[in-house]
Amino acid sequence: MVDNKQVKDYLFTDTRPVVGHIPIEEFELHPATALLSYTLVVKDAIEKCKRSFDKKANNHLTVESQIAIQNLINSALASIMGYFEMYEKYLFAAMFEKSIYLSSFVENTFYKETLGRSQEKVEIPFAQLTSYRNSPVSTGLIIANSLGNWHNPEKVNCYFRAFGLNTNAFSNDDITDLQVLWQLRHSIVHNGATITKADAQKVDQLKTFGDRKIVLSNKFIYDLSKSMHSMVFNANKRLEQAFLGNLISTATTSDRNNISKIFEVSSRNTAWLR
User: What's the CA gap between 157 and 172, in Å, rounded?
Assistant: First the structure.
């Protein structure tokens, strides 16, 4: 495939435990914490490159170093948004599993809000179902993977409101930021880091940037990690409060504590959690 090598020759060639990747188990337990851990890993990597790459006499990066950093930052943004989608899906899945404790959960309403008012069944490819054999995959995750609008923050708000919760995960400011981030990610992945004229018209903040290459500031990933800490912390706090405020009367203290665990948000950079 690459240089006449088979996939097995360049993928998973090291049998030692993987270091530096956030395991799926972390997303299953604490989706927000897993996401934020990854943003810090990427932020640290970019900052280390900035310190290590060749510089001019004035301590600014050389042209070659600047080009390298830009490529790394673009790749980092695309990767972080992939992890953000995982955060959304795994939080949704965990909430679905705990929805048996919700007094506000109505099945028909949930179906309509998540799948569309004209669709009343989940369509899951048979191959996808068979891939879950002999594995402890939650029903919530199967449903989450069948939904197709995780890059649309307004639709994601609808997914979470479908549980009967009178609150949005993402604020209006969050939605504005996420619309830009998702479009940048799309342009990096699908259009060679160019914002096409057509794509520029999809997001108000990008309308004047049509047919331009994406050049992000060298501090972008640092700032993105910081802002995601705040965004996710507040999203989880809103959802947790709404969820706990709609529990059935028979829910015990132990039930409440277990539910709260799925909304936990921690980070080694605690100052950014506010």
Answer: 11
